[in-house]
Design goal:
This protein is an alpha/beta fold. The chain folds into three domains: 31-341, Rossmann fold (3-Layer(aba) Sandwich); 457-524, Luciferase, domain 3 (Roll), CATH 2.30.38; 528-658, 2-Layer Sandwich (GMP Synthetase, Chain A, domain 3). It is built from 21 helices and 30 strands. An eight-stranded mixed β-sheet has the order 12-11-8-6-7-14-15-23. A seven-stranded mixed β-sheet has the order 5-4-17-16-18-19-20, with helices on both faces. Bound molecules: 5'-O-[(S)-butoxy(hydroxy)phosphoryl]adenosine (WT7). 5'-O-[(S)-butoxy(hydroxy)phosphoryl]adenosine binds next to helix 12, strand 20, strand 24 and strand 25.
Amino acid sequence: MSETAGSLEHELEGMLEIEKFPPPADFREHAEWADPAIYEEAAADPVAWWTARSKELLDWDVEPTEGLNDSDPPFYRWFEDGRINASAQCLDRHVAAGIGDRVAYHWRGEEGERRDVTYAELLDQTQRFANALKGLGVEKGDVVGIYLPMIPEVAVAMLACARIGAIHNVVFGGFSAESVRERMSFSETKALITVDGARRKGKTAQIKAQVDEEMGDLASLEKIVVIRATGVECPMTEGRDVFFDEVCAAAEPECPAEPMEAEHPLFILYTSGSTASPKGILHTTGGYLTGATTTHRYVFDLKPETDVYWCAADVGWITGHSYIVYGPLANGTTSVMWEGAPDYPHQGIWWELVQDYKATILYAAPTAIRTFIKWGADIPGRFDLSSLRLLGSVGEPINPKAWLWYHKVIGGERCPIVDTWWQTETGAIMITPLPGITETKPGSATTAFPGVSASVVGESEGEPVGEGQGLLVLEKPWPSMLRTLYKEDERFVETYFSRFGVDRYLVGDAARLDSDGYLWVIGRIDDVVNVSGHRLSTAEVESAIVAHENVAEAAVIGQSDPDTGQAICAFVTLNDGVAHTDEVIEAIRGEVAARIGKFARPKRIVWADDLPKTRSGKIMRRLLRDIAEGRALGDVTTLRDPGVMAALEGQIAAEGDDE
Ligand code: WT7
């Protein structure tokens, strides 16, 4: 360790003693919201508070006369008689207000290409593409798949759907084509928007060819629109496939935005749950837009005229939907959009972008921060980061050490950090500091956003725990909550509203409430694993592993990992006669990459001749977690064959020898 790294380490150790960080005086002085009375005002009547925000930040075509309709819980409806079009809120109204030449996205390509896309340009492209979609037969209520890398067209594709009332179904570009197929097939997607190829760290993947291979026979899929992002040759099927640039050029330039009912579905986004089959989270128009726009404005203390905001997530996750597309655009924000990885073309690329665009707000995941810590503080140290005034964290708990490093090395001790807790299901940030008001504690997402009530309750009875640990619940409906699981109403009720009834939303996380009323989110209580902020179900990974011809059985757990938060650890039983070799390990990892995506590959594979099962045959994952983390084993008396654990312990002890 270099001398400077040693002294930084020492300083951070010292800072661990600091319990609370008040908003820096200079930040507070210029903060839009600095009066804590906002919390009381919202708590006094949350529905009225949200309704006021929705009218303050959005221009409804028809203003709603009612806030919440809770006559059929848990199927809550918001702003029901209002009418609004999400794409018009994000584009038309800004152009009409005379800020059409404001940059919406400063896009930077992997090889250094620059594109500054203005609001007027986005509107023009969105209108043309909306017309093109109509021409391809897409109608209001149809589902349109989007499988794209981080290019400005991804926003155009989403907004064009919203403009005509088609429901977009974005799949993260890191998912394999097979996962895309599953999500398209569940939702009976009619058209898919994708690319010829996608770049990653200097290599180009043949996306369209993979899509053809997996989706060629999908009955519902009538049209595929291909954006020429890389220029690689790609197969096109006559009558089904069209090029984006060609259909846009041929389309009429004007496509008036149709006011939608507030509860018209805006999008589906598949996420992982307890079982192998992903859940189609459904969000609707007026409430979602209210939640995303309000939180984006308040949590980031956004000043649309002057801020340069960068959310370094991928648009394929909910963070990208709410805080790269809908929230920022509805607020008229100038954003940075980066196509690539954090280490290509070099490990300082993020900081180079902050410096070049004079970014003022950075919103990133703890896993990225931990990676930067590993690379060393001298890398960001080479760039001018003085434009930054606010930092955000999202996706997983941030450990206090990483928080302090972010605060000191990136934020120069002048930027508040907003650690934001939320989920695909919540649509918008739920637990977070307000940067001009809240005293932060490293590692805690602090308290619920105004108008949101979060509590920690006992596992069995659901009684409030007061100070202490329990399950996190959200107690009142909020505008951007999921409306259902697409085509699975029963699963929706069962998953979120059966344990404690229809008026308490079960989050699926454990949390602790401290004596100041601050919330500390601990992690999932279900079989969901969070790898680098990517949500995966253990069952999903298990089913990919057992799909391999040599595998008899598999059990997957999330193991804590210093870099990725959690990592996938798989206990695998091979078929009789198959040797435990590195080739088989690679083949299993390859199977998972093909079926789900590279990010889901197990980091560690432990050979297990047998798995610990109860007498009824249920795998005891708790014991696997104990053994993987080197903890003392919990109760083994319910095992059918207690000898299994000794064999596994032997296997773990021998692990190092294999390498
Ligand atoms: C799960 C939701 C939030 C959008 C991206 C992830 C975990 C998320 C935090 C945080 C601790 C967090 C929770 C949650 N999580 N943010 N600030 N502190 N944990 O959305 O894929 O739906 O995952 O991510 O476990 O339930 P998602």
